[in-house]
Amino acid sequence: MTTKQVYSQEEIQAWLCSHLASALQVEAAEVDIQQSLEDYGLDSTQAMSIVTQTEKMLGFEVSPTLLWHYPNVEMLSQRLAEESAELGGADVATDVATDKAVVHKPNIVKPATLDLGAEVVLDAAIRPPSQSFRFVGQVDNIFLTGGTGFLGAFLIQELLQQTNADIYCLVRGDDITAGKQKLQKNLESYGLWDEEFSPRVIPVLGDLSLPYLGISTEGFEMLAANVDSIYHSAAMLNYVYPYPALKAANVLGTQEVLRMASLFKVKPVHYVSSVAVFESSAYAGQIVKEDDDFQHWEGIFLGYSQTKWVAEKLVKLAGERGIPVTIHRPPLISGDSRTGACNTDDFINLVIKGCIQMGCFPDVDYMLDASPVDYVSKAIVYLSRQKESIGKAFHLQHPQPKPLSYLIDWISSMGFPVEMIPYKQWQAKLINDLSSADNPLYTLRPFLLEKWSDEQITIPDLYLQSRRPKISCEETLNALAGSGIVCPPFDSQLLMTHSAFLIQNGFLDIA
Questions:
Q1: Over the stretch 194-222, which tens digit does the pLDDT of each residue have?
Q2: Alpha helix ranges (H) inside 107-227
Q3: What's the CA gap between 471 and 294, in Å, rounded?
Q4: What are phi and psi of 36, to 5 degrees?
Q5: Residue extents of the structural domains in the chain
Q6: Burial code of 314-348, b = ≥16 C-beta within 10 A, e = fewer?
Q7: Burial profile 451-490: b = 16 or more Cβ within 10 angstroms, e = fewer
Q8: Which of 510, 220, 477, 457 is nearest to 371 (CA)?
Q9: Quick one: 295 exposed, middle or buried, by C-beta within 10 A (0-12, 13-18, 19+)?
Q10: Does domain 2-92 have CATH number 3.20.170.40?
Q11: Most exposed: 48, 342, 354, 506, by fewest CB within 10 Å?
């Protein structure tokens, strides 16, 4: 038994401001304690880092979902101060392995059971104008969302190379100059920026989570009247937040994109969905094809996956109303097969790095089915420019996945001393042996160890082969036949390319 130190709201607030500023690479004075944390654009990794550091300082477990239930620094610090006071000043049992107070969940009112089917409601006003749609191979103006993301950068580059269109890119920023700089910086980070194309990359200030995409009514209508095609790849990718926290950006944002497509003249929408729409336990072990319907949502636990299910349903509804749509469902997306360029903050990269540092991987039945980003972007742009693609869905799954053991054997051949150990043993090491945030897995522990559903299963459990569907991409490969676009094989050459990038950027240490 021990007595925990009590922290005041002011102390916790100052601590949170300091660490949030560090994560966002801004000054602490720039953090508005009343501004929603969602507005700061925290990704899952940054959110996990703050949660882990906070619970280490406070000495008790902090649920990642607190970032949603208490959505700004002021509210969060107040709730944590209350929790600190409840646990302090009295003897409490501690876990000898972690020195944290024995799991004490905050008193959060849980929402009613979520019915995703009831969420599929598309504004009745979103209907195409009376004139019929005529497919045009070459377009002059493209509207694109997600241009500051990983896939978005490669889509911009591919569209610039394969079309002569101007690309109007939705971006958050204080002004047009700042918006353009964000887009340019993102492309530069992956070696994609070409100054020659700069005049064709046009920032549109807005916000995916707001009505009319955060664009003025006049600006929204002007875009709707002038753009010829829409690529919607933006989404808030956060594995921590529940469905309600992601709905505005991922579901309602998709509705606003469809609204733009229906105004004045009908415009095709090329929507980047996800194979996550088939995460329901009803599809476990089943082969799902591109044209299969997806009625089941029970057993989809992650808020992000739930929003992708609802959003794609809205796109399907729009298609039934006469808006031309194509749907592209990628799996996890890996680095550029040519350069290895990737997002080093990607969840998978962090897990691999953490396992290498820990010296072991869990012995789990996983298949490596991630597709290189250049294959995904090339396939999306090519398929979007084919008349026959309208109304269809495409699976951009790697056609020849490899088991996790293949990756681990290759890592071992590179000189990294790693082994596969039973999953329960790996979990125990995760809990008991990691004490420093120098290992990315330390930061990710709350996420990796969180229990979901009545079955009390963890995120790694959700992605076991026995729980996953078998994603067929046969029809997609047929549609790509003759295009010269082929998914690079998952072999030593591809792994070497990815590793070289990560080593050269200091992400992996071979010493």
A1: 999 999 999 999 999 999 999 999 999 99
A2: 116-119, 150-162, 176-189, 217-226
A3: 13
A4: -60, 135
A5: 2-92, 136-402+470-504
A6: bbbbbbeeebbbbbbbbbbbbbbbeebbbbbebbe
A7: eeeeeeeebbbbeeeebbbebbbeebbebbeeeebebbeb
A8: 477
A9: exposed
A10: no
A11: 506
Q: What is the pLDDT of residue 148?
A: 93
pLDDT at 220: 96
Contact (Cβ atoms closer than 8 angstroms) between residue 365 and residue 308: no
3-state SS class at 329:
strand
In this prediction, residue 171 carries a pLDDT of 95
Q: What is the pairing mode between strands 91-92 and 2-3?
A: antiparallel
186: helix, coil or strand?
Answer: helix
- Please give the full DSSP string across 408-469, using - where no structure is assigned: HHHHHHTT---EEEEHHHHHHHHHHT---TTSHHHHHHHHHH--BTTTTB-HHHHTSGGGS-
Q: What is the pLDDT of residue 88?
A: 63
- The C-alpha torsion from 259 through 264 and 266 to 268, rounded to 10°, is -60
Residue 428 vs residues 52, 97, 457: alpha-carbon distances, Å = 17, 10, 15
pLDDT at residue number 90 = 45
| CATH code of the domain occupying 136-402+470-504 | 3.40.50.720
Q: Positive or negative, the Cα torsion across 232, 126, 280, 103?
A: positive
Q: How far apart are CA 338 and CA 497, in angstroms?
A: 7
What residues contact 431, with CB distance under 8 A and at least 6 apart?
Answer: 97, 98, 445, 449
How many C-beta atoms lie closer than 10 Å to residue 13's C-beta?
20
Distance from the Cα of residue 428 to its chain's centroid: 27
Q: Which residues of the chain have pLDDT under 70?
A: 1-4, 37-48, 52, 61, 63-71, 87-113, 131, 446, 452-455, 511
What pLDDT, on the 0 to 100 scale, is given for residue 105?
Answer: 41
Q: What is the model's pLDDT at position 67?
A: 65
Question: ∠195-198-201 over CA atoms, to 5°?
Answer: 150
Angle between the 347-358 and 440-449 helix axes, to the nearest 10 degrees? 110
**What share of residues in the chain are helix, strand, coil (percent, to 5)?**
45, 15, 40
Instruction: Return the exposure string of 168-192: e unless at least 16 CB atoms fall within 10 Å of the residue's CB, then b.
Output: bbbbbbeeeeebbebbbebbeebeb
The predicted structure's pLDDT at residue 87: 67
The predicted-structure confidence for 83-129, as pLDDT tens digits, reads as follows 777 766 444 333 333 444 333 343 333 444 688 999 999 999 999 88
Q: What is the pLDDT of residue 445?
A: 78
The partner residues of 72 in beta bridges, in order of sequence, read: 36
Contacts of 48 (CB under 8 A, 6+ apart): 64, 240, 443, 444, 446, 447
